[in-house]
Specification:
Elements: E1 5-6, E2 32-36, H1 45-59, E3 63-66, H2 78-88, E4 94-95, H3 99-106, H4 111-117
Parallel strand pairs: 1-2, 2-3, 3-4
């Protein structure tokens, strides 16, 4: 893995106010690996900053990993959580989900039914 840059979008609870203007100079390449989760996707400015960074990373052909790591207690509306996770999956090359997250997103308990939905 020579000359590979690992980049992680890690936004902690204290930085929900991170704004697009704070990261406008961040650039990505096809050698970058990006990781993000749903904690960054609650309805705060950081959600749109994360989306902005993901758009830039995708345009640069970076490899993007989405580990939703769903924290239901952060969401006032679980349907909004589900829809947000689904809408952000389009940015990911790789989605890593626990069984309970797959069940929450798909509404299916059977592994074969879960996979067939995707």
């Amino acid at each position: 893995m020579d000359n590979v840059t690992l980049v992680s979008i890690v936004i902690q609870v204290q930085t929900y106010s991170l704004d697009k203007c704070d990261v406008e100079e961040v650039e990505f390449t096809s050698d970058d690996y990006i990781s993000f989760g749903s904690v960054d996707l609650v309805e705060y400015p950081v959600k749109y900053t994360t989306e902005y960074l993901l758009q830039k990373a995708k345009a640069a052909n970076a490899t993007i990993l989405f580990d939703p790591n769903i924290r239901k207690d952060l969401w006032d509306d679980l349907n909004e959580c589900k829809q947000t996770v689904l809408s952000f999956m389009k940015y990911a090359n790789i989605v890593k989900m626990a069984d309970d997250e797959v069940e929450f997103i798909t509404g299916k308990k059977s592994q074969s039914k879960k996979l067939s939905k995707w």
